[in-house]
Amino acid sequence: MSARRFLPVLLLLFVGSGCAALIYEIVWFQLLQLVIGSSAISLGVLLGTFMGGMCLGSLLLPSVVAARQHPLRVYALIELAIGAIGLLVLVGMPLVNGVYTSWAGSGTAGLLFRGVIAGICLLPPTLLMGATLPAISRWVETTPEGVSWLGFFYGGNIVGAVIGSVLTGFYLLRVFDASIATYVAVAINVAVGAAGLVVAGATKYEPLDLAGADQPSRFALRRSDEASAEAEGSGLRTEAESSGLPPVTDIPVAAETSAVPHKSGGRTEVYVVIALSGLTALAAEVIWTRTLSLLFGATTYTFSLILAVFLIGLGIGSSAASAVAPRLSNPRAALGWCQFLLCATMAWTAYTLTEMLPYWPLNPSQATTPWINLQVDFVRALYAVLPSSILWGASFPFALASVARRGQDPGRLVSGVYAANTIGAIIGSLGASLLLVAWIGTQHAQQLLIVLAGIGASIVFFASVDESAAAKSWWPNVWAVVGIAVLALFVRTVHKVPDVLIAYGRYASMRVGQAEYVYSGEGMTASVAVSRMSDGVLNYHNAGKVQASSEPQDMRLQRMLGHLTTLVPRQAKRVVVIGCGAGVTAGAVSVDPAVEKETIAEIEPLVPLVVSTYFGEHNFNVVKNPKVEVRIDDARHYILTSKEKFDAVTSDPLDPWVKGAAMLYTREFFDAVKAHLNPGGVVTLFVQLYESNTEAVKSEVGTFFEAFPNGIVWGNTNNGQGYDLVLLGQVEPTHIDVDAIDARLKRPEYATVAKSLRDIGFYSAVDLFSSYAGRASDLKEWLKDAPINRDRNLRLQYLAGLGLNLYQSGPIYAEMLKYRRFPDDLFVGSPLTIEALKNGIQRGLDVRE
Description:
Helices cover 60% and strands 10% of the residues. By secondary structure, the protein is of the alpha/beta class. It has 3 domains: 205 residues, Up-down Bundle (Growth Hormone, Chain: A); 231 residues, Growth Hormone, Chain: A, CATH 1.20.1250.20; 298 residues, Vaccinia Virus protein VP39 (Rossmann fold), CATH 3.40.50. The protein has an 8-stranded mixed beta sheet with strand order 7-6-5-8-9-11-10-13, with helices on both faces. The radius of gyration is 31 Å and the shape is elongated. About 7% of the residues have low confidence.
């Protein structure tokens, strides 16, 4: 059977391989973020380990696996091994979690330990993933057509990655969980591996020798005796040979000649250029994803959509270049032009993201379904990102064609180019996410990337210039000046991210000119802003929306959250505040005389350093309070690795639809917080009703009540309608002595607390507790179908991601209040106090109805 007819099968196998790889990547990153945190440092460790493993796998395969091994059998066994390790990672994650939380610390030692954990989980499978392309590449010969097929394999892998990214982000993890997603990936690995073994059994592979690219070598080329004799007599190559497939019979072929003729220059510059291409690609992806997440909303769907668009461009570019490369006399020139055109397309994307897309007259809240917004976002992402990603995709096949030599081990050819590209990608992704954006901002970071792409183009072009001819001509110098002038023009078109986009994100076009931006900044994990309205109201913006403000309804929520946290427990000496924000909740906690030490866990350094200072008048200058400690860390990571016990924990994280925030709403996290409570300790949690939907609210409340069966709901209203909630939970049954708390508020040392409550409309303890909106026993019927948010599914982020453009807070709250009953066993006080409390709760109900 002719081996040629198996090429489409191999291409299909690589599509499956890429699909499984992306499923694993998304699932593993989600699971490991739950363990080592989702801070910029943790994400950098995960990304570096993942890509580093693939780079090492690509480099090691040609040295570890002998060339005489059947390539398809090696590839099939690698796929089966990836599936087996995928199952081990899933099963072993609880053990990894236990080891990490028992031994993790802070500082350099903690950082190293995060790397060790990431390496244990990710290096074995990623080493194998990186080896798949070099393994399968030995099935083709390093002729122009053979190198072209290597590019098609690379493109097929990317097509599979697109499928895996969309399948996982929009279906598998939304409907099922990490286990089901892993099983699907394992099934794909098994199918690919089995098919690879079948094809390997149906074909013959008998190489004599494979040497390096710079040494003469011989292939055992497989062709029939008749075809061999005809080829020798006529000087023509057989169909199988011209397709790049290993022919059938042993015939020596010299390796001194290149698979593609080159004008001049060595191969080193090609490796440098493809590394620069990988650097600019991943750095730009980090930067553009960050800007687009402001524009679209930072949901898990947005990240999956942007990744899919980026991969689509890579697939189109690599496939097109693979088809063209065999017919090019000088693929190096094509590689150079790709880099030069990248300067223009990156400038286009930068300009589009700052000067065009934010001002398109779109109102996401008018869409009848969230899927309509996702379609619009997909088109906008294509409009901005596709041109550059096509050129990055084309660079890889052109680089392969530029360094290929006839007789070269295809495995070494692919591994060298792939490793160089991956090393550049590691530097680009880590450099952009950990350094460039926070250091010089997205504007200057993108300008730097354009310059690097220009340097890549010049390396290729000038390496191909004949020095003796150049010395006699002034044209190279003219072109150099022209190129520098054009590059400078591209650089100048890159503008900073508009303040209105940082502040209002997807509603930027509707908010132009409505506020004065007193601060905007780009941090390691988020872009934040502070605005002042014409009436003096301050707003804190993060994730492209207002997260806190000095508006009465927002101040009431933030101070309710802080004061309930310290007033309900018997004592609140040691308190943890999750999320600094405007600092109002943390400030309300800090002014309670009972509090001796307060820790604020905040993931973005700019928030406590800059943002909270603008709200100093409203937050009692909390970050300057000597009993307050600010920890820059993922709050989940801080709680899980802390050896301390706390009297109270209050949580006011970003919206649950923001990717990663749902990790602070899982049953496992609530159990971990509960385990860190002292006897009588209290946990409070903010739950938003606006920009949400019933399913998401039920998930938040139901998950909290599953961990705290005695949980209580307190309501915050705006204009008589539900606005947001505070959940309160204790391990023990809660009993609130209203008279004792009222007496406490009248003490001189509690004057600041009492004034803080009066400022938000609570003039007594009765007023404060009249915000009672129900408890777990009341809402059991309402919550019977609540999707519980767990570490393995993070169901909440997928539910909430479909409701970020909805405004249904009033109906959701009204539906909850139908189940509320006055709790005779919750409040303690004199008959007059209890009667006043009943009337206060009823008055609130009457207003809302």
